Amino acid sequence: MGSSSIAAEEGVMRFTRAGKKCLLYRDQSVQVMLATILTPRDVLIGISDSGKSTAIVDAMRLAGQTGATSIGITSVQDSPLAELSDVPLFTSNVAGEGLYGESVTSKWGWLLLIDILYASYAARHFDDTLQHLKETYEAGIRHSRSPGSPPVES
Q1: 74 burial type by CB count under 10 A (0-12 exposed, 13-18 middle, 19+ buried)
Q2: What average pLDDT values come out for the chain (154 residues) when binned by 10 residues?
Q3: Rounded distance, CA 115 to CA 38, Å?
Q4: Rounded Cα–Cα distance for residues 108 and 121 (Å)
Q5: In the prediction, which pLDDT does 103 show?
Q6: Coil vs helix vs strand at 33
Q7: Residue 95 carries which DSSP code?
Q8: Which is it for the CA torsion 50, 54, 56, 60, positive or negative?
Q9: Is-contact 48 76, C-beta < 8 A?
């Protein structure tokens, strides 16, 4: 939701390139509905600076009921998001009480944590990730060379 969706989009792009199927819905109702059909093989990453965003907290609660693993990214340790997360990760928020999401520090923190999660996954599954990176790169090159497109230098 909101500015945290930028970090979520980055996560979707990175993990998709690494061969993991990822979904991101901005609609809050769909976020909650999607959480009800997760399985123990799924991971839900919830990002909320305040840790109180209703749809994100509800999705995390539902993920717990389905057995899915949940990773919560927030700047508030005693927030509902942190409490419901199997793996709570924290960012800094220098904006102060009541100004959640307004801190550039928080935004960079979200992106950094997504990068760390991705790098950890890629290192752990190096060969598979490398193969998927090659495949998705080549698919992008083929797509950019569609009829009528200028040649792409690589």
Answers
A1: buried
A2: 86 93 91 95 94 94 96 94 97 62 74 94 94 87 69 54
A3: 23
A4: 20
A5: 65
A6: helix
A7: S
A8: positive
A9: no
Mark 92-104 as b/e (b = at least 16 C-beta within 10 Å).
Answer: ebebeeeebbebe
Contact 71, 117 (CB under 8 A): yes
Task: Find where tokens 């009480």 sit.
Answer: 97
| Secondary structure class of 10 (helix, strand, coil) | helix
The pair of three-digit structure tokens given for residue 6, joined into one six-digit string: 């930028």
Q: Which two tokens stand for residue 21?
A: 């199927």
Q: Is the pTM of this model over 0.85?
A: no
> How confident is the model at residue 104, as a pLDDT?
73
**Token pair of 97, please?**
């009480």
Number of CB atoms found within 10 A of residue 138's CB: 10
Which of 35, 78, 40 lies closest to 60 in space, CA to CA? Answer: 35
User: What contacts 125, CB < 8 A, 6 or more positions away?
Assistant: 18
Predicted local confidence at residue 74, as pLDDT: 93
User: Which residue is associated with the tokens 């944590």?
Assistant: 113
Question: 6, 10, 35: which is closest to 114 by C-alpha?
Answer: 10
The token pair that represents 80 in the structure block = 């509902």
